[in-house]
Each structure stands twice: as structure tokens, then as C-alpha cells.
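G., the chain you wanted modeled:
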Amino acid sequence: MPRENFSDIIFETIVIVGVGLIGGSLGMAAKKHCLARKVIGIGRTEQKLMRAKILGAIDDYSLELETGASDADLVIICTPVRLVVPTLRRMIGRLKKGSIVTDVGSTKAEIVREAGEIMPAGRFFVGGHPMAGSEQSGVEAAFPDMFLGATYVLTADEQTDLEALGKMTEFVEAIGARSEIMSPEEHDAAVAVISHLPHAMAAALLHTAEEAHKQSSKVFRLAAGSFRDLTRVSDSPPELWRDICLTNVEPLISMIDQLQDQLAQFKHVLAQRDEEAVAQFFEQAKRIRDSYLRIAK
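Predicted structure as C-alpha cells:
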């Protein structure tokens, strides 16, 4: 349906590089709330871009990465984390003065540092990470209300332009998300434990279960809800998580060390058959989870 109310425009033209689940949802949200006069998608496959246009994620599209963003006021790079900076390098010479570039990558320190080193004067990079998503992929799974009530991280360091950060904050809140401003390093330390470590744990659990299954072919036949819940995230593309982990090595290793310490302590009290200590291990975990659920409301 054509949009008629442009009084809430924040950016005249938004360009989205990679119109998949997140990029498509951002385009739909920007269009729904009339935050841009035009939303353009850039990708490698015309058929997919045409589909994104039919679904209402973009108004138009381009196959030319180097020139397709030349009129953009905001460029949102929605590629895998290790392609964000290479993508930026290819288009950087054609960005117009005053334009803002952001990304949606799951790690921030490496991206923000490298982007800051190459951004020309008068063009601004603000790292971003919407804490929203779906097990599905592709623009077919995109929807405009994906970000309602979700936390959307924007990163700030000594190089961040405050006016650009302010406009990004306005955009994020206009699509219904809660903006959270933090340093790239603080972000990466947090997601290492709440996101990246759980994926590593799920993979390790599956490897362990596979070894146990070799000893008894009944193991996977007995697996039920808790096993499926704990390993659900392993359905994600392996290449995606390879890149995320390799761009957040030190924080993730630190969290693995802490997890190993916790398991070592539990192993010790378990070997001692210390009923009180074993009970406390699980009781404390339940209290922590209850507290987390109150905070997350």
C-alpha cells in the first residue's frame, strides 16, 4: 500500500545491503513507519531483490554495490560479520557527504575499529546489533514488527559522531526497539556469554552425545524436550557461527574458561556426593534465572 504520511522521515533514502531476514524486516519497518522517502535494496541476485520488492521490504533495488548507495543518507549493511568491512570498502568512495553507515553484525569491536580506520571525512559509521531474529531465514520470513520491544545495540567510542549516533537512536526507537548504547568491547563481552557461548555449548553437547550414541545406539532415541531445547541453536548455519566466533575470540575464550570453572566445581562436589552443595548449585541457578526473567520483562 502506498505511503502517504512522510512527516516522520528521518532519512530521505535508506539503502539496505543484503535484504534477507533482518535487512528485509528493517526495510519493512522503515516503510511502515514512514521513516524514509525511499528504501533501496542492494544484492547479487535480481530474483531475490524482486521478491523483496514484491513483499514490501524495499521500493527499488540495485545490483551495483559500488554505485547503488551513492544517494543514500543511511546505509545498513546486513551481511555476515566478516563481510561487513569488505562491503564498506567497496562502496566507500561513492558515499555522499553526511551519510551514515551502520551494520547489524553480532560482533562489534573488530568491525567498528576497522570501519573507523577507513571512513572518509564527513561520512560516519555507527555499529549496530538488533537483538532480534528468527530461526527462519530469507526475506520471506521478514516482518515489520520484528523489532517491537527488542533491544537494539548501538556502539559508541571516541570516534563516534554524536549527531550520527543521535539519528540512529531516533531511527531505532521509531521502529519500536529499545536503544542500548555501549562500547564495542562491552557489547562483545556481553554477547560472548549470552549468545556465542550457548552456541558453543550446544555444539559440544551434540559432539558428546554422538560419542555416547556410539557406545549405546539408544541415546538419541531417548532424547526429548530438554535435549532439543538445549541444542536448537545448532540448526543455525555453521559458517555464520564460525565467523562470529572468530571475530570475538578473546571474550569467548574467557567465557569458556569461566564455564569450565563452574563445571569443575560441580564435578568436585558431585564426586564428593555432597548433597547440599549439589542442591545449592541448582538452587542458585534457578534464583539467577528468576532474576533474569524479571529484568527481561
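The chain has two domains: 11-182, 187-296.

Shout if anything looks off.
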